[in-house]
Amino acid sequence: MSGEPSSGDAIRETAVRIAAAGDSRPRAARDPVNLPMIRNWIEAIDPNGRDDPGTAPPSMIQVWTMPGLHGLRTDDDPLGLMNRVLDEAGFTSVVATNCDQTYQRYLKVGEQLSVQTRLLDVTGPKRTALGEGWFVTTRSTWFSGDEPVATMDFRILKFRPPPASASATAPTLAPESPMLPLVTPDTAFFWDGTVAGELRIQCCAGCGALRHPPGPMCPACGQPGDGGYAVAAGAGEVFSYVVHHHPPVPGKKLPMVVALVQLPEGVRMLGEMPGVRPDQVRIGLPVTVTVTRVGDMALPAWRPAEGALPDRVIDVTPTFVIASALATRDFYEVHHDRDLAVERGARDIFINILTTTGLVQRYVSAWAPDAVIRSVSIRLGVPCHAGETLTLSGQALDEKVVAVTGRCSLGDHVTATVRIERAS
Fold first, then answer.
1. Distances (CA, A) of 6 to 194, 221, 407
2. Which of 52, 146, 224, 350 has minimal CB crowding within 10 Å?
3. Whole-structure pTM value
């Protein structure tokens, strides 16, 4: 047997050495905090948003020190050093998985920032849905002068890309799509309604009774046919529920809660409660309807009514993906070049993690405009590709914590926790 260390041993030894070195040297932002960049960021991510023109949105913190199109990492940058050794070992593809940002205060136009980064952890090799890879976690601290103003724990997965022949036939970044219901002549009106944002209940032509699920004959009077439909208010109470742990469900993250909801109109309706933990559900829980768009369909789902934030629906066009990546100074090709994105295992270009963080922060800020955002913690799930619709839903867990879920056709793109501080 050879006495040479394995690639795994070499990776671990490099990680120990880099972690022991501590923080990198301060790296100055190329530009001070400035209004043109703030405007570009807001136009791309939240065109209807309003801001103090002298203050930067807090989730822009990483943008100020991004290296740019032709920028190079410094020779002591921990992430750059780990990327190099992982690239040499064949783990050449990368996807961000987690981002936890904490803000000491908001930044003013004109401030000059610098950033220092240290390596926190390297774990692997791990088998993931994308293939074998290593998780790399770093911590960055931003300073204005000598004052620390924000920190970020950032995790990526460096994985071995599939062979060219395999990626051409089975893209690894595209998990199985959720199962879709069968649309029949009896149910078409219901699914047309969900796309239009309505929860429609079938009405009997003979006795006027409402019934769900839809069918060809009224169970109350036995008359065939129907008399159209009534539009439900979209609220109800949990009559019963199950927590599904197994078997796996295509496009779903387990465990998931499925609830039977009693509507005030007198019928019961089944639906998932996405982003809701089992311990948050109880019989009699007031809920309100939301929808998840999957291709041309819209699937109704339920969420707790108390503390619910209004949904925000984002049309993820190719222009949105590219414009938001540029506004966040992220020039990684999978967010701009479709051919390269497909070559590296994606279905199309997809939203970058800086944009997702910004969307979550802005969603909560729009709901609580007078609150100060103290932290944003996100975990990425399925990719959100160009051509998708992303629906953000939120739940205020208490006065200081908001849970946010962003769903696209493949499932949960992001689950997040936002901590806020309200003005006294």
1. 55, 75, 40
2. 146
3. 0.81
